Target: 2-dehydro-3-deoxy-phosphogluconate aldolase
Amino acid sequence: MDIKQIMRSCPVMPVIVIEDLDTAVPLARALVAGGIKVLEVTLRTPVALDAVKAIADAVPDAIVGVGTVVRPEQFVQAKAAGAKFAVTPGLTPKLAAAAREAGMPLLPGVHTASEVIAAMEEGFDAMKLFPAEQAGGLGMLKALGGPLPQVLFCPTGGVSLESAPKLLALPNVGCVGGSWLCPKDAVKAGDWATITKLASEAAALRP
Ligand code: 3PG
Model:
């Protein structure tokens, strides 16, 4: 699957932070049960790559990827763990080259028109607008769609169930990202029913 197909497979890409490896598989199963199968596991914790591997092995219906990639070597590590895609908060020529070399579909982060153009120069036409709210949110995406209509965005950062519908209605938005599907307390408590409910609400944003 290329990155645009992955973006279109789910209206919301959950931004996942795994602190305890034992929660990775049940959390992934709870999200998939609610209809959210594209999962971005952020490389922010020591167990993140092990979590990706556990999900890739045990939850075949999930399309698991990695987020918060900031170092070139992480693409190869993520691929070895079973990640199908990667997300970065920003883009550098080194990261773009490393993703290409690893053959890893990448959703690079951008924040300005110049960064969008720089990412286009690296061959990307799908990007994460990050942090979306601070970048201008809905108004920014509408404005970028004028001169740069060929770019498909995944706005992430400050997006909620309430703000998502208007974003998803834009022609240049493929999906949105957000951490609201995986509240820390629910994950810690093993409250998978709550996670599945949040995932169902999110999946219903684009029936
Ligand atoms: C992140 O990378 O943490 C995302 O920006 C999540 O943002 P959110 O918590 O506002 O959804």
Observations:
- The beta strands are 12-16, 38-42, 63-67, 86-87, 106-107, 109-110, 126-129, 152-155, 176-178.
